[in-house]
Amino acid sequence: MHESGDEAVRRGAVSELVNRAERLAGSMLATEPERQRHSACVAARAEFLAVAVEPVAVPVLLAAAWLHDVGYAAAARVTGFHPLDGARWLRAEGWDEVVCGLVAHHCGSRFVAAARGLTDELAAFPYVEDPVADALTVADQTIGPDGAPMTIDDRMRDMLARHGPGSANAQAHRAREPYLRAAATRVAVRLRAAGVPSDQHRIT
Fold it and tell me: pTM for this structure?
């Protein structure tokens, strides 16, 4: 079966979106190799989890996975809160609002934003709770800071240890933890529905 001209154009545009995100993440995080490696591994994890979202949404998921940490780059850093800084930088560069919203709100950032007094600023970006947002959250929460696979339980313990008990992350954890666990449960259900055996997607 031959691909139509319109389908070929669409496929090319989809591939270019993900490729552009990969190139941007690589260049912006070039001076932070560990974070660059983390982003690449989150993108790979998101590709595995992509069966849990509609096919049309996969490119947006993968682009957001590549870009979720660009707010750590010196060029984007303003507030020091990387989801907000990354989303603002991407919006200024003309990235799609859906991608900007996913970056802004990844991994329940709204709970940490509240602890940092940045709720209103983060609210400038669209918040959704859907399969794409869930998959991005789980992809990030099952890859450690150095790119190694982790369970969500291990990732939360690591986060609390790295940031410390007085951090905004620790202050937000009581409210944020149920969100992270619920997202993981929803993704696990979707993976099972897609025929992925449970032992291949250990999350918690």
Answer: 0.90
CB 83 within 8 A of CB 109: yes
DSSP category for residue 51: G
Question: Does residue 142 have a pLDDT over 70?
Answer: yes
What is residue 197's predicted lDDT score, i.e. its pLDDT? 81
Taking the alpha carbons at both ends of the chain, their separation in whole angstroms is: 42
Contact 33, 139 (CB under 8 A): no
Q: Which two tokens stand for residue 114?
A: 């509240």
By the 8 A CB rule, do 101 and 132 touch?
no
Structure tokens at 203: 């999350």
d(CA 167, CA 171): 6
Tokens of residue 163, six digits: 């940031």
Question: How far is 71 from 126, CA to CA, in rounded Å?
Answer: 17
Stretch 145-164: mean pLDDT, rounded? 94
Task: Name the residue with tokens 């989809």.
Answer: 14
pLDDT > 60? residue 204: no
CB 68, CB 40: distance < 8 Å: no
- Report DSSP state, residue 3: P
Interior CA angle at 163 toward 146 and 176, to 5°? 95
pLDDT at residue 2 in the model: 46
